[in-house]
Amino acid sequence: MEPTTEFRYPVQWIDRWTLEPGQNVTVRPVLPQDAALQHDFFTHQMGKHSRYQRFMISMRELPCSTVQYFTRIDYHDHFALIAETFDDQGHRQVGDARFVRESGQPATAEFALAVADAWQGRSIGRRLLQALASAAQAQGVRMLFGDVLRDNLPMLGLARASGFAVRRHPDDARLLRVSRALQLPLPLPPANDAAWSAPAPRERACAL
Ligand SMILES: CC(C)(COP(=O)(O)OP(=O)(O)OC[C@H]1O[C@@H](n2cnc3c(N)ncnc32)[C@H](O)[C@@H]1OP(=O)(O)O)[C@@H](O)C(=O)NCCC(=O)NCCS
């Protein structure tokens, strides 16, 4: 029997990007049915070094228990977007971005990001992080943070370029902590209220 999700699938975070003419990437929240795609992504589409930068431990392949944890999510405490492509070489996952709320601190969430080796340097990481931050902000996360190995210059560069502050990690000298405050989303204008006017640009909720 096909695995199913017992939570409402958040279709509003489905998107499609054109990286260059003829090359499209679809971004969508992960599903339980994506287990094989996720295993292939973390095991084969990411090289050893990238996997180490992502998980901070050496692993040859993504364990089944982690595949299950990564694909059976509630879209609230644990939210994940995958980027996928369909071309003449088939259907592949090329990116993964997720956040998990801190236990007891639901307005704070830790994120992690990964892009397939062959697809790095093409703005997928930047766009995935932006989409993830928008989803987090819309769901009430006010502080998004990530722990990054000190030598992970691509991730530190991406975090800085995306408005994250980079600080020392509170407990681990191997790491730096990147964090960004997400403001409250603006309330929607009341229907048919002529008196409502759009706020000045600097007052708009940050969309990262
Ligand atoms: C970090 C990672 C997600 C970046 O993804 P990406 O798709 O290659 O990044 P992008 O192409 O979107 O780059 C966006 C910005 O990041 C920064 N960046 C990317 N690669 C960089 C590099 N090698 N050195 C310095 N900065 C870099 C730049 O600011 C870049 O903007 P620019 O292209 O305008 O210069 C990717 O390298 C990766 O998956 N690494 C392995 C896993 C990992 O380290 N995850 C982070 C743990 S949370």
What does this structure look like?
The longest helix has 15 residues, at 124-138. The protein has a domain at 11-144: 3-Layer(aba) Sandwich (Aminopeptidase), CATH 3.40.630.30. It has 208 residues and is an alpha+beta fold. The protein has helices at 35-45, 48-55, 64-71, 124-138, 153-161; strands at 15-20, 23-29, 78-87, 90-102, 105-115, 143-149, 165-168, 175-181. An eight-stranded mixed β-sheet has the order 1-2-3-4-5-6-8-7, sandwiched between helices. The radius of gyration is 18 Å and the shape is globular. Strand 3 (78-87) and strand 4 (90-102) form a beta hairpin. The chain is built from five helices and eight strands, in the order ββαααβββαβαββ. Residues 193-208 have low confidence and may be disordered. It starts with 14 loop residues before the first strand and ends in a 27-residue tail after the last strand. Coenzyme A (COA) binds next to helix 2, strand 5, helix 4, strand 6 and helix 5. Coenzyme A binds next to helix 2, strand 5, helix 4, strand 6 and helix 5.
Sequence of secondary-structure elements? EEHHHEEEHEHEE
- Count the strands? 8
- Measure the end-to-end span: 40 Å
Could you list the spans in which at least 5 consecutive residues all have pLDDT below 50?
A: 193-208
Topology:
Elements: E1 15-20, E2 23-29, H1 35-45, H2 48-55, H3 64-71, E3 78-87, E4 90-102, E5 105-115, H4 124-138, E6 143-149, H5 153-161, E7 165-168, E8 175-181
Parallel strand pairs: 5-6
Antiparallel strand pairs: 1-2, 2-3, 3-4, 4-5, 6-8, 7-8
